[in-house]
């Protein structure tokens, strides 16, 4: 039950921060390619939400795998686009003023929250895969 609670909390925080980051993308504007948009529209938003729902059901193992894989993919996407590749999406290319400040803050928060999300996903998988003790 705690895994479902923590998983749901991290997914809600993940969605809020990514939503704010997306708003900054639109307002600055920092456009995404078609593939980036598809990735965000499939992997970063709906899959973690589906995972959170599944954590509360008999399909919690699938939910745990979806949580870990989608949040880890989001983390890698953020590291790649905000820290590694110099593009309009890189942190060094966006001003700290106006919407740029929201962009900067949320980009860093995404990395932190997704890091915690990965930890929760690993914890969930480790917990459910432990063999039961036979008395």
What does this structure look like?
This protein has 135 residues and is mainly alpha-helical. The protein has one domain. 76% of the residues lie in helices and 0% in strands. It has five helices and no strands. α4 runs antiparallel to α5. The longest helix has 30 residues. It is elongated. The model has no long low-confidence stretch (mean pLDDT 94).
Structural class: mainly alpha
The largest β sheet comes out as: none
Shape: elongated
Distance between the termini: 24 Å
Please bin the fraction of helical residues: over 70%
For this structure, the quaternary state is: single chain
| Count of separate structural domains | 1
Global Rg: 16 Å
* Low confidence ranges: none
- Mean pLDDT metric: 94
Element-by-element helix/strand order: HHHHH
Q: Helix segment count?
A: 5
Strand runs, count? 0
Amount of beta strand: under 5%
Question: What's a concise summary of this model?
Answer:
With 135 residues, the protein is an all-alpha fold. It is 76% helix and 0% strand.
